[in-house]
Write a structure and sequence with these properties.
Layout (H helix, E strand, L loop, with lengths): L2 E5 L3 H12 L4 E5 L2 H11 L3 E5 L8 H10 L7 E6 L4 H9 L4 E4 L4 H42 L10 E6 L7 E9 L2 E9 L4 H15 L11 H11 L10 E9 L4 E7 L4 E5 L7 E5 L17 E4 L5 E5 L15 H10 L7 H11 L9 E7 L2
Parallel strand pairs: 1-2, 1-3, 3-4, 4-5
Antiparallel strand pairs: 6-15, 7-8, 8-9, 9-10, 10-13, 11-12, 11-14, 14-15
Helix pairs in contact: 2-3
Length: 377
């Protein structure tokens, strides 16, 4: 039985409305003043409110409407404002206050009942949509938890690695992994799928699973350029709903202290070492190459870098530096690299994120963000 709240100070109108609506099978509660109406609305959470514009008690129909619409527990309540005001600007004022519909005095019961039936249909539709929204949010939260569960934990031991992942939505298109191919060779990669949301997350986790299971036929996973070539052949954007991804892929040879790497449209990794004179030595590790999936015949190359003792390697997605600062300028890659090499050198991942947060204008990040820091002994 639908709950209807009538807010009206006229005894005759109260009885007419109550009897007429009860005969239609509705449960009707009467409030005689504005404050009483607001209190009953919060308590009953009715499906529909029929409220007079002019009321005693310090609150008129417009103010009641604003209070009801501002209450998150009453977002689906249909608000029908009854008024003797006939001018267009006054009726516009009522709609701007949040009223879902207006009914003119003197009341016509047939019209009122029709408006109530329509309002209750919309109320039920809104409740159904809220239920679907909650279900979808629960499913997205479950999917987000699954994606996070795929990401590797912090690595300790011979080569400590710390990572942070901040999606701009519940599901993001960034993904990364690191693991030992054998006792001396460590693979590290980070990829960034175009777009956001479920489609991007599905592609990123698919790539992660393919790489983690080493299920690319005939690929030597010690050779970064070969891995990127195979990924490009497997994940062409025409077969992935027009989605492509950038990636940085590196293999660290612990015995020789060398890092072999290749990238496809991805920001450079930043290798920072500290010579004895105290000034940081910075290398941007990047190779030319189109993002994976854009062009079927793309060629990928590799490079090698020595890794001095005590070095740190930062790998990241562009979401960490493509942000608007408080002065409305973009932070940009160069400024971000300067941040990594400013005093004190050797920032932790959380210190880097805190410095970026202090610079940006918007509270939330507008793109997915991933950041890895690898410490070499």
């Amino acid at each position: 039985m639908a709950e209807i709240l009538v807010i009206n100070d006229d005894p005759v109108t109260q009885r007419v409305l109550q009897r007429g609506l009860q005969r239609q099978g509705y449960s009707v509660t009467i409030a005689r003043t504005g404050p009483e109406g607001v209190e009953l609305a919060e308590t009953l959470q009715p499906a529909l409110i029929v409220c007079d514009w002019m009321l005693p008690g310090g609150l008129d129909g417009l103010e009641i409407c604003r209070l009801v619409k501002a209450n998150p527990d009453l977002t689906t309540t249909y608000f029908l404002l009854v008024t003797a005001k006939g001018r267009t600007e006054e009726r516009v004022q009522g709609l701007d206050a949040g009223a879902d519909d207006l009914l003119s005095k003197p009341l016509d019961m047939s019209e009122l009942k029709a408006r109530v039936r329509a309002g209750l249909r919309l109320h039920q539709l809104a409740r159904d949509l809220q239920g679907q929204k909650r279900l979808l949010e629960a499913e997205l939260a479950e999917a987000a938890a699954y994606v996070r569960s795929l990401l590797p934990p912090q690595m300790t031991g011979k080569v400590p690695i710390h990572a942070r992942f901040i999606p701009c939505r519940q599901l993001g298109g960034d993904c990364f992994d690191y693991y030992w191919l054998d006792p001396d060779f460590l693979v590290i990669y980070l990829l960034d799928v175009s777009g956001h949301g479920l489609g991007s997350a599905l592609l990123s986790t698919s790539v992660l699973n393919v790489l983690r299971s080493q299920s690319l036929p005939g690929v030597n996973f010690y050779r970064p350029e070969g891995v990127l070539r195979a990924l490009n052949e497997t994940f062409q954007m025409n077969d992935q709903h027009d989605k492509y991804f950038t990636i940085w892929y590196g293999v660290y040879n612990r015995a020789r202290r060398q890092l072999t790497y290749s990238s496809a449209g991805h920001p450079p990794a930043v290798l920072i070492s500290n010579p004895e004179n105290g000034s940081a030595n910075v290398k941007r590790l990047r190779t030319p190459g189109m993002p994976i999936g854009m062009m079927p015949e793309t060629t990928f190359t590799w490079q090698r870098s020595d890794v001095p003792p005590g070095s740190s390697l930062y790998i990241f997605s562009d979401g960490i530096y493509e942000i608007q600062q408080l002065d409305n300028d973009m932070l940009g890659l160069d400024t971000f690299v300067d941040l990594l090499t400013s005093k004190p050198v050797n920032l932790t991942v959380d210190e880097v994120l805190n410095q970026v947060r202090a610079l940006k204008a918007e509270e939330a990040f507008t793109d997915d963000l991933s950041l890895l820091k690898i410490n070499f002994d």
